[in-house]
Fold this protein.
Amino acid sequence: MISQKSIPTGHLRKVHHIAFNVQNMAASRHFYGHILGLYELTGDEVDATLKELVAAGKIANFVTPDGTIIDLFGEPELLPPDPDPRKSFTRAYHLAFDIDPQLFDQALAVIQENNLVIAYGPVTRPTGRGIYFYDPDGFIIEIRCDPL
């Protein structure tokens, strides 16, 4: 039986954070901070409950331009069930970032110059363009834009 109670539409305001377990913290910090250009929180910007773990290099926090926090949790023993990252190993499929259509080709060039493994694309659809590629732990990242 389906519950009759629900959180009313509009009560959930935004995505607060997304947390990823990562095998290689240095590689993931480089990927999210340098390649994707997300801002890494440091010092007093880090939530007080995480400061000790951030200082120990066990967690890194990045913020997207819209304010969503991406938390990276270091799990050096992390391995997906299958070493082939094309085989899904999680219920989450991908994380998609929106980009200005005029900057899409520049983002594509960065992905190619960094020799990132492309899962699919680039593709052009009626809804816009997109490219799907893997982060250092085999999770799919999408960069997409609306049509021009």
